[in-house]
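Agenda item 2: phycocyanobilin complex prediction
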Amino acid sequence: MQDAITAVINSSDVQGKYLDVAALEKLKAFFATGELRVRAANTIAANAASIVKEAVAKSLLYSDVTRPGGNMYTTRRYAACIRDLDYYLRYATYAMLAGDPSILDERVLNGLKETYNSLGVPIVSTIQAIQAMKEVTAALVGPEAGKEMGVYFDYICSGLS
Ligand SMILES: CCC1=C(C)/C(=C/C2=NC(=C\c3[nH]c(/C=C4\NC(=O)[C@H](C)[C@H]4CC)c(C)c3CCC(=O)O)/C(CCC(=O)O)=C2C)NC1=O
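Presented output:
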């Protein structure tokens, strides 16, 4: 796993240089938003279950996936879907705190698309649910932190598509 600081330092290190102005600006922006990130992570943690619930209501409930024959049909599969959304929310929050998406590649996206395809989990519906989670989260944490979280929700969606 990487974060905004190690990413900038590693890229200077491979060039054998001190941090240049652009690298320092990146760090400055990261430090300046530190408080915002921590506050957002706190709010998300305290409301995780309701974020997932509201996102499901907005995107999946009473659609084809929840009807007999749909991939969310039966409580076991419904619960697996809710659990997956909770993973996406928690890992997007980690990535937002780190200011870097590498944790998503390593712990979430690696092999995920193949797993979903082999189980018949519909990727389009999953992306709709993640986008709904992005909206619900932004409404809760405010536009600035919401935009930052949006980067990582979108990262998961593009990793799945
Ligand atoms: C932390 C990283 C991590 C991720 C991301 C993860 C995902 C993940 N989701 C799975 C299943 C599943 N995922 C879903 C999800 C859905 N079905 C739908 O129709 C909806 C659109 C969608 C929810 C948004 C369902 C229904 C299953 C069970 C499929 C089955 O067993 O038939 C499985 C197969 C094994 C299992 O059932 O637990 C994995 C590995 N596991 C992990 O450890």
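Discussion summary: The chain is about 80% helix and 0% strand.
Owner for follow-up: CH.
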